[in-house]
From TrEMBL:
<dbReference type="GO" id="GO:0055085">
    <property type="term" value="P:transmembrane transport"/>
</dbReference>
<keyword id="KW-0472">Membrane</keyword>
<feature type="transmembrane region" description="Helical">
    <location>
        <begin position="234"/>
        <end position="255"/>
    </location>
</feature>
<dbReference type="Pfam" id="PF00153">
    <property type="entry name" value="Mito_carr"/>
</dbReference>
<keyword id="KW-0812">Transmembrane</keyword>
<feature type="transmembrane region" description="Helical">
    <location>
        <begin position="286"/>
        <end position="306"/>
    </location>
</feature>
<dbReference type="InterPro" id="IPR018108">
    <property type="entry name" value="MCP_transmembrane"/>
</dbReference>
<feature type="transmembrane region" description="Helical">
    <location>
        <begin position="96"/>
        <end position="119"/>
    </location>
</feature>
<feature type="region of interest" description="Disordered">
    <location>
        <begin position="1"/>
        <end position="42"/>
    </location>
</feature>
<feature type="repeat" description="Solcar">
    <location>
        <begin position="45"/>
        <end position="125"/>
    </location>
</feature>
<feature type="repeat" description="Solcar">
    <location>
        <begin position="137"/>
        <end position="263"/>
    </location>
</feature>
<feature type="transmembrane region" description="Helical">
    <location>
        <begin position="139"/>
        <end position="158"/>
    </location>
</feature>
<keyword id="KW-0813">Transport</keyword>
<feature type="compositionally biased region" description="Low complexity">
    <location>
        <begin position="12"/>
        <end position="30"/>
    </location>
</feature>
<feature type="transmembrane region" description="Helical">
    <location>
        <begin position="355"/>
        <end position="372"/>
    </location>
</feature>
<keyword id="KW-1133">Transmembrane helix</keyword>
<keyword id="KW-0496">Mitochondrion</keyword>
Amino acid sequence: MARTRRDTVDNGTSTSSTGSTGSTGSTGSTIPLSMATPQASPSQHAMLNNLMASSAAALCSRLCTHPLDTLKTRIQVSNVPQPLLRTFLRLARDGGLYRGLPIALTLSAPGLSVYLTAYDLSKDRIARLFPSYLGTDTVANHLASALIAEVSSGLFWTPMEILKSKQQVETLSPALSSSSVSPSKGISIHARTASTTAAAASASASASASASAAKPISTRDLARKIYRQEGLLGFYRGYFITLGVFVPYSMIYFATYEQLKAMAWRQRLQRPGSATTPYQQQPGEVLPFMTIVGCAAVACGIAAAASNTVDVVKTRWQTSILTATEATSSSRRIATQLFRQGGLASFTKGMGARILWMIPSVTISMSLFEWFKAYGLA
C-alpha cells in the first residue's frame, strides 16, 4: 500500500518521499487533495442552496404580485368603499401600482430567506431533539417551526412593511381620509363603517391634501424622516402586533400546507390500479409543480382569512408613523375606533383584496422555493 511521508521544512512546506495521494511539484512539496480542493460540507451546501432558492423565489413573487399588494393596501386605508377593478385601473393610469417596490425588493429577499430557511432548519432540529413527540411529520413540529421562522424574519418584514405601505398610500386622495368623513357632509353611517384599515394612512393622506400632485417622497427621504422623528425603533413600529398577525398566519399556513402535501404524497405513493405495488418515493423527489401550487393556494387562503382581523389594526398603526393622532397612538385605540365605526364587520373589510394578493404571492414563492431547493441552484 502506497503511503505518503511528509516532513516539515523551514519554509513551512511539506516534502514527500513517495505517495500516490496529493500533488507533487518540482520541489517535491505535496499538497493533500483535501487541502487543494476544499469542499463544503453537505449541510453548508444545503444551507446555501436554501438561501439562493428562497431569494430567487422572493424576487419573482414580489415582482409579479406587488401591484396586488398596492391594491390591497389602498383599499384597506380608504374610509369609503373602493371597488377592486376601478381602484386597480386608477392606480394603473396614475402609475402607482409599483410604488414602494424598491424597498420591498431590497428586504423581501432576506426576509423570505430567513423565513423559509429558519422553518426548514427548525423543523429538522426539533425533530432530532424530540423524535418521539415532534417528528418532522407532526403538526406540533410544524406549528413550532412556523413560530420560530416568523419571529426571526420579522426583523426584515417590519421595516419593509412600514416604508412600503407609507409610500403606497401617501398620494391617497384626501376625500377618502377619515378627516373628511362626517355625518355633516352627508356621508352615511354605512359608508363610514365600510372603512377597512389605516387611520394612519388617512392622516398621511390629509397631510398631503394641499398638494395632491406633489412629487412622491423617495424611500431614502422617508427613511431619514422616520429616523429623525422616531429613531431606529420607528422602523419597528408595530413589530409585536405584526407578530400577532403573522405568527397565527404562519402556524395555520404551514400546518395546513404540510398536511395537504402529506395527503398528496399518500395519493401519489400508491400506483393507480395496483394495491400491492406502491410507488417508491426517490430521494430528493418532489411533488408535481401544480400539486405544490394547489397545496400552497388552499393553505394560504385559509390562513389569510383567519388572520385578517388583526391585520387591519396592524396596517392602521404602521402607516400612522410620522402622522400619528390620538386615535392612532396605540393598537388598542385603533381597534376601539374600528369597532365604534362598524362593529365586527370593520375588521373583515379588505379581506377579499388581501386574499387576492396573498394567494398568488405565496403560491409563486413556495412553489419556486420547493423546486429550486429540490433541483439546486448552488
